[in-house]
Structures are given as C-alpha cells and as structure tokens.
Amino acid sequence: MAMTSIGYFLSCEQYGPHELVAQARAAERAGFERLWISDHFHPWNDAQGQSPFVWSVLGALSEAVSLPVTTAVTCPTVRIHPAVLAQAAATAAVQLDGRFVLGVGSGEALNEHILGDAWPSAGQRLEMLEEAVDVIRKLHAAGARGESTSHHGKHYQVQDARIYTMPAEPVPIYVSGFGPQATELAGRIGDGYCTVKPDADLVRVFRQAGGGDKPVQAGMKVSWDADPEVALDRAHRLWANDALRGQLAQMLPRPEDFEAATAFVPKKDVGEAIVCGDDPKAHAERVRQFVDAGVDEIYVQQIGSDHVGFFRGWREHVLPEFH
Q1: How far apart are CA 86 and CA 92, in angstroms?
Q2: pLDDT of res. 323
Q3: Continuous segment of H or E residues that includes residue 313
Q4: How far is CA 294 from the centre of its chain?
Q5: What is the distance between the terminal CA atoms of the chain, rounded to a whole angstrom?
Q6: What's the per-residue H, E or C state across 227-259?
Q7: What totals of helices (H) and strands (E) does the chain contain, helices first?
Q8: Is cis: bond before 73, omega within 30 of 0?
Q9: 7, 36, 42, 154: which is deepest, by most CB within 10 A?
Q10: What is the pLDDT at residue 277?
C-alpha cells in the first residue's frame, strides 16, 4: 500500500472548466498526488451537462496546480488526427514541465461520430489506435531532433510535418483497455496502462504482454454525501451508464441513446458500481480493491454535490490509510 499513489479524477462530462480547475486546486490541497482528466466531445447524458475542450483545460491546470496530469483517455483515431494530437500533447507537456501523460484509447461512437465517419469494428479501432500511437511517437522523435517526418500508413497520412514546441523528455503514452484484446495491446505498445476495473486478471494480461513493471492507472467514482440515498439518487441520475454491460458504451452514438439505455439500469447496480455516502471505511475498501488488483495509481472522481465534505473526508480519513 505504501507504493500506491492516489489521484483525483476530473470529469469533463460533469463539470465546466472553472469548476475543474477549482477541484484540481482543492485536490492538491487535500493531498491527492496526481490528476486524471477525461476527454469528451459529448457527455454521456444531458444530465451531466458539460464537455469542455480538454486541451484548453490542461493549459489552465498547468498554471493552477503542480500535480502530474494524465488524459483519461484521448482517442487519437477518428475525430482528431494523431498528428494534431501529437502537437497538442507536446505543448501540454511543455506547459506542465514534463508532468503530462497522454492516455489514449480506441474511443466511443459518442464522441467520434460527429464528423460523419463510419464507426469501425473493435478490431479495426485497435488497429487504428496502434498506428496512431506510432504516428505520435514518430512526430515527437523527429521534433526532438529538430526534423520533419512523413508517414504513409493504412489509416493515416502525414507529409513533411515538424513539431517545433517540444518538451525536454518524450511524452509517455499510456493505453487503456477494458478487455483482454485491448489490454494486450496496451502491454505491447504502451508506456503504461489505464483501466477502470479492479481486475487482477487484466493487470496480469498487461504485464505478461510486455507491460512488465510499467505503471497501471485506474479510475473509480464515488458519490460523497451525508445522506446515502441522496448520493445514490445522484449517482443513478448522472452515471447509470457506468453499469451498462457489453459494447453499449462504445457503440451508442448520442447522449439521448444512453439516456434510453440507462432507463433500464436498476439503482442497486449503480450502488454496486459507485460508492455512495460518506462512510470513509466504504471508500477506503473500494480503494483497497484496486490496490489488491495490482494498480499503482488510483484516481477517484467525486460525482456527489458535497465537494467540501468529500475533500475533507478523504484528507482526514481515507488518504492516510494509504500513506
């Protein structure tokens, strides 16, 4: 447990840019050691109600806090070309003085359908992700040498491109995976692994596929409130999508589609997925599940309305359990 690092998860789906920066500052004061930040074009449902451009928020965070930041996660395959994201990641790393990790994944139709592109199969999305990561690394390596580069691949073309604003060290790229196929890819090409499950088997797949002792990050949600029923009601209204099964999270294209699908999600399923209430023991127990699964960095997202109580409770009662 002494090696576990606890961070705070900034939700761009639920909060606007000013709120996200305020939460980041509060997280640093409370003793959280690092930050995750989601990258969405749409929220999962209209009740969540936000979706600021993550790269603008990262610039603000670089001036507001001194914590490391990981995108959790950026899709570099459809909505934004990997060459553009290579430039964005390099700039973020410069702004954050090397405290930036580019977390990437194969994405969701929810965000990636907006330009009218066809939504590929899972296997093709992973193939595109692997090539996109290669493009980003090529551009970063060439930029570090002060050179331009080109790429002529199956999915992406880059012609005589050079990134001029470069960090002193290469930008680490962590790859997300929620099933064995994506997790194997993360082990093979990632500098680290991102997940949202306390799943020891997936961690093992990552490490055996080439991940070795590279960092494993995972996110979890809580709804901190003095009234557990109020906490559960809020979690069910805002984040019932966390209890959806199968490929729905990757395949549904619109927030209203998620609203229709989550209408059938029972509250008890949400209560099992998200810790609700202000019992520090329950919150610490969920963290321990991730620790026991072999996760190195755990990021907690407060979806409840009582942020003052959350940061005080975690500072005084939960974080000390893991330091």
Answers
A1: 10
A2: 85
A3: helix 307-313
A4: 18
A5: 7
A6: CHHHHHHHHHHHHHHHHCCCCHHHHCCCHHHHH
A7: 13, 11
A8: yes
A9: 36
A10: 98
φ, ψ for residue 194, nearest 5 deg: -120, 135
Q: List beta partners, residue 6.
A: 298
* pLDDT for res 1: 40
Q: Is the pTM of this model over 0.90?
A: yes
Separation between Cα atoms, residue 57 and residue 37, nearest integer Å: 9
Contact assessment for residue 260 and residue 248, using Cβ atoms and an 8 Å cutoff: no
Calculate the dihedral angle through the C-alpha atoms of 189, 36, 132, 86, rounding to the nearest 10 degrees: -120
* Beta-strand runs (E) in the chain: 5-10, 35-37, 69-71, 100-104, 149-152, 157-161, 173-176, 192-195, 216-223, 275-276, 297-302
15 φ/ψ angles, rounded to the nearest 5 degrees = -130, 150
Q: Which parts of the chain register pLDDT below 50? A: 1-2
What tokens appear for 258 in the block?
A: 């998620």
User: Buried b / exposed e across 186-223, counting CB within 10 Å, b at 16+?
Assistant: bbebbbbbbbbbbbeebbebbbebebeebbbbbbbbbb
- For residues 204, 5, 37, 151, the Cα torsion angle rounded to the nearest 10 degrees is -50
Look at residue 16 in the predicted model and tell me its pLDDT. 98
**Helix, strand, coil share (%) of the chain residues, nearest 5:** 50, 15, 35
- What angle is formed at CA 16 by the lines to CA 108 and CA 261, rounded to 5 degrees? 40
Q: Which residues are catalytic?
A: 40, 108
